[in-house]
Amino acid sequence: xxxxxxxxxxxxxxxxxxxxxxxxxxxxxxxxxxxxxxxxxxxxxxxxxxxxxxxxxxxxxxxxxxxxxxxxxxxxxxxxxxxxxxxxxxxxxxxxxxxxxxxxxxxxxxxxxxxxxxxxxxxxxxxxxxxxxxxxxxxxxxxxxxxxxxxxxxxxxxxxxxxxxxxxxxxxxxxxxxxxxxxxxxxxxxxxxxxxxxxxxxxxxxxxxxxxxxxxxxxxxxxxxxxxxxxxxxxxxxxxxxxxxxxxxxxxxxxxxxxxxxxxxxxxxxxxxxxxxxxxxxxxxxxxxxxxxxxxxx
Length: 298
Description:
The radius of gyration is 19 Å and the shape is globular. The chain has two domains: 124 residues, ATPase, nucleotide binding domain (Nucleotidyltransferase, domain 5, 2-Layer Sandwich), CATH 3.30.420.40; 154 residues, Nucleotidyltransferase, domain 5, CATH 3.30.420. Strand 2 and strand 3 form a beta hairpin. The protein is an alpha/beta fold. The protein has eight helices and twelve strands. The strands form three sheets. Strands 3-2-1-4-7 form a five-stranded mixed sheet. A five-stranded mixed sheet has the order 10-9-8-11-12, with helices on both faces. A two-stranded antiparallel ribbon has the order 5-6. The mean pLDDT is 95.
């Protein structure tokens, strides 16, 4: 298929591969559970199997991969990963998948890939300078600069999770420290803040559901998290000067109303035209962005 490429999404719970057309449309898709507890070789075998099943439907070029973990931009090796993929740190993803597939492989972090996807075929279509934040169990971020991922010196540019955040002093971030943005504006942060106030251990999703159902404490927790996120994003706009900010992830819908209000209130006048946008690609964002990476234009 002329101009089509394969993009792969390696996550802690599921792995997906897709054939993506030259306009960013997903033409075919495969998915399987990630065998995370079976080790890196099993994870790579699953990714390679899904991708190989689609290679005949794509062109002869490289395969793109978005993966959990911080990726060394020079080598394609995982510099750091959480326990969602045990043993993933140190895995040479580029070399291992290229050997399995017999094709060149290009790899980046999954949030980076999602940002590329949203710039190519999603909420920020046509934008070349974008900040994306992914609000899920944790908080991730990515910067697209002039149409390409801004890697930084270690592959970690755009990680907004560890910015100091008001109201998070007693909440623990995923890094183990206190007072960071992820500790308040994430699914884990919602759960921790609600438990602190009520003594009730529930998930972040449950907090969002209780807020929608009228639980006063849950609403306060949700809206405080959204307002903190929105204010932080307004400050980052002044620092990074993007064309747009995109909010993705499973907790995005719950936080966006309050985040949008705070963002508009805090945005400096010189950046008043920079929109705060909900992501549009959903579960396809990473595979679409990985395909864009494979094209060699990102």
